[in-house]
TrEMBL record:
<dbReference type="GO" id="GO:0006516">
    <property type="term" value="P:glycoprotein catabolic process"/>
</dbReference>
<protein>
    <submittedName>
        <fullName>F-box only protein 6-like</fullName>
    </submittedName>
</protein>
<dbReference type="Pfam" id="PF12937">
    <property type="entry name" value="F-box-like"/>
</dbReference>
<dbReference type="GO" id="GO:0031146">
    <property type="term" value="P:SCF-dependent proteasomal ubiquitin-dependent protein catabolic process"/>
</dbReference>
<dbReference type="GO" id="GO:0036503">
    <property type="term" value="P:ERAD pathway"/>
</dbReference>
<feature type="domain" description="F-box">
    <location>
        <begin position="43"/>
        <end position="90"/>
    </location>
</feature>
<dbReference type="Pfam" id="PF04300">
    <property type="entry name" value="FBA"/>
</dbReference>
<dbReference type="GO" id="GO:0005737">
    <property type="term" value="C:cytoplasm"/>
</dbReference>
<keyword id="KW-0833">Ubl conjugation pathway</keyword>
<dbReference type="InterPro" id="IPR036047">
    <property type="entry name" value="F-box-like_dom_sf"/>
</dbReference>
<feature type="domain" description="FBA">
    <location>
        <begin position="111"/>
        <end position="290"/>
    </location>
</feature>
<dbReference type="GO" id="GO:0061630">
    <property type="term" value="F:ubiquitin protein ligase activity"/>
</dbReference>
<feature type="region of interest" description="Disordered">
    <location>
        <begin position="1"/>
        <end position="30"/>
    </location>
</feature>
<dbReference type="GO" id="GO:0019005">
    <property type="term" value="C:SCF ubiquitin ligase complex"/>
</dbReference>
<dbReference type="InterPro" id="IPR039752">
    <property type="entry name" value="F-box_only"/>
</dbReference>
<feature type="compositionally biased region" description="Basic residues">
    <location>
        <begin position="9"/>
        <end position="26"/>
    </location>
</feature>
<dbReference type="InterPro" id="IPR001810">
    <property type="entry name" value="F-box_dom"/>
</dbReference>
Length: 294
């Protein structure tokens, strides 16, 4: 081996020394993908705050971020996010109140999210979109029709302006609600079994007798009935008071397996008159209700 090659080999094998004035790069200075050192990351850990202060801060953080982000930061934050007081106070501030004060929720966080998500699962319940969303099962006589609510016979909710009206032979329509598509998954429905509140408003014509039919079925994945509410038909005589009435039912403790809700209503007149003298229906609703809010 030549002298030049021997010198190169000795240079490659030699350990590189550091001058005393230069600080060695240690574990505390390893750079992260974001350009911060591990030493810096230790300094940016969340400070320990009094519980009351942390809870007040969390009251202004979006609820989903509290559960999906803040809860994972450290043990203290997890304990505050999981606390009953945080979600009870959040319900109070946002106006989610118990309708039955004697029945407290077992889980205030669950109660909060159910309140926030609560809505009418029926499409076009007030006839504002013609018949969109409804499946017409029977369209007898002169068929279903949509009319305006009269000023003389307003509903308790005066924002309702239209209704569906039946004719002289049976008129029936329904909606099938897919709970998974509406955001209520199988595990939630099976384990929590939240109350399901169904409601319908109906009224006769004053100058003609009629009949009102109503049913709601809770169905499994194969659309087999698990539970149903099917009251007897309601009959009205001719020359009645024409007042709007509410049909309402709460499904509670119905067991696992509910995946669909089928809502059906309608009727006919009993005089067999041409035109639209049958039962009138509107402002229908199906809601998933928080526990204790019946």
């Amino acid at each position: 081996m030549s002298d030049a090659n021997q010198a190169l080999s000795r240079k490659r094998g030699r350990k590189v020394s550091h001058s005393p004035g230069k600080k060695r790069r240690g574990m505390g200075q390893v750079r992260s993908a974001h350009g911060f050192s591990a030493e810096t990351n230790f300094l940016t850990m969340p400070p320990t705050l009094p519980i009351a202060v942390l809870e007040e801060v969390f009251m202004n953080v979006p609820a989903r971020e509290l559960v999906c982000v803040c809860r994972l930061v450290c043990r203290q934050w997890k304990e505050v996010v999981d606390s009953t007081s945080l979600w009870r106070n959040r319900c109070r501030r946002e106006g989610y109140e118990l309708r039955n004060a004697s029945s407290l929720p077992k889980d205030w966080r669950q109660f909060y999210f159910l309140c926030k998500k609560r809505r009418n699962l029926l499409k076009n319940p007030r006839a504002e979109g013609q018949f969109s969303g409804w499946n017409i099962l029977e369209d007898g006589g002169d068929k279903w029709k949509i009319e305006d609510v009269s000023q003389e016979h307003l509903l308790p909710d005066e924002t309702v302006k239209k209704y569906f009206v039946t004719s002289y032979t049976s008129c029936m329509k329904c909606q099938l609600i897919d709970l998974v598509k509406e955001g209520y998954g199988p595990a939630f429905m099976d384990e929590v079994q939240p109350d399901i509140i169904v409601s319908d408003w109906y009224s006769p014509r004053w100058d003609c007798g009629c009949v009102y039919n109503f049913s709601v079925e809770l169905l499994n994945q194969k659309k087999k009935v698990i539970r149903e509410f099917h009251p007897d038909p309601v009959y009205f005589e001719q020359w009645n008071d024409m007042q709007w009435k509410q049909m309402k039912h709460v499904f509670h403790g119905y067991g696992p397996g509910v995946r669909f809700i089928r809502f059906t209503h309608g009727g006919k007149d009993t005089q067999f008159w041409a035109g639209w003298y049958g039962i009138r229906v509107t402002n229908s609703s199906v809601e998933i209700s928080p526990s204790g809010d019946r």
